[in-house]
Amino acid sequence: MNTAHECIFCQILGGKSEATFVYQGEDVSAFMDLYPVTPGHMLVIPHEHYRDFSRVDIESAGKMFQLGRSLGEALRKRGPTLEGISYFLAEGEAAGQVVPHAHLHIIPRYTGDGCGLRLHKDVPRRAGRDDLELQAAGIRETLNAADLSGV
Questions:
Q1: Rounded distance, CA 53 to CA 61, Å?
Q2: pLDDT tens digit string along 35-65?
């Protein structure tokens, strides 16, 4: 299990590892991805170490997305050939998270860039309404127990 002192993103924030920063704030920062999917690929991270995005405090989570949105706007202004932007966040290895520190990818996109969400051939094209209702009911039941007063 990685702890904050072993985390590469925490090391970057602490000045113990290199990064090319785009923005450094009090609670969140953004830097260029060392393994970019496309040129301009950036990462937005909270300063506090959270392995999972679902554990990031609401204020920092909001700042991550505010910064991500601003970075997307900057990409659009700089690149007239930019065709889209992927905002990608994974939680857990099964979802594609490589570094165990919550982070948001900001990925410039172009037709034919080879990046994208790919579904395997066995995924049904359309879910049955009864299955969707059953799943939604279970999620609503759990959600009702959560504090959503700020939403």
A1: 8
A2: 999 999 999 999 999 999 999 999 999 999 9
